[in-house]
Amino acid sequence: MAVVISGFAVSGAVGVPLGRLLGEAVGWRASFLGGVAEVSGPWIGVCLMGYGIAAAVGSLAGGRFADIGAARALTVGAVGSAASLIAMVQWGTSAVVAVLAVLCLGMCSAGITAPWQHRVERLAGPGAILAAIAVAAAIASRSLRPASSTSTEPDRTPEPEPVAIS
Predict the structure, then answer these.
(1) DSSP string covering 102-160
(2) How far is residue 9's CA from residue 53's CA, in Å, rounded to a whole number?
């Protein structure tokens, strides 16, 4: 599962920087970090690529940690994501802090995906039985059609007469 999820992170590591270069070629100014942390020009692309790489590493690590203890991996990832966001809000004007926070956010937020999926699968034992029943019901009911109405006009109930107060 972690390998599949890592595909999204790798696409971010390659696609986002290429999209940024394309945007700059047609005049779009990316401001992912610029004006806040004074990161601009080609450094924005480098930061975005770093985010994608950190997300790929986080996905793979999250898969490994999910096998050891998914609940603990979720906790560590959530705390890391929260700490990254707090660091960006508090000290995001520093380019070094902003870049490190973005890398940590990429790793932690992508790292909780596999443990989250793992945890859902482990807790969904009874849900699998319900899902199998739902599939059987869907297959059994696919030939059913809605009952046709005997009347072509909608049922109209007369509205009550207004009461005059004198």
Answers:
(1) HHHHHHHHHHTHHHHHHHHHHHTHHHHHHHHHHHHHHHHTTT--PPPPS-SSPP-PPPP
(2) 7
Chain Cα centroid distance, residue 25: 29
The tokens for 110 are 């992508």
Residues sharing a CB contact under 8 Å with residue 53, sequence separation 6 or more, in sequence order: 9, 13, 106
Alpha-carbon separation of residue 120 from 70, 88, 115, 128, 152 (angstroms): 10, 30, 8, 11, 48
Pair of tokens at residue 66:
């999910």
Per the CB < 8 A criterion, the answer to whether 122 and 71 are in contact is no
pTM over 0.70: no
pLDDT in tens, 36-80: 566 666 777 788 888 889 998 998 998 898 888 888 999 999 999
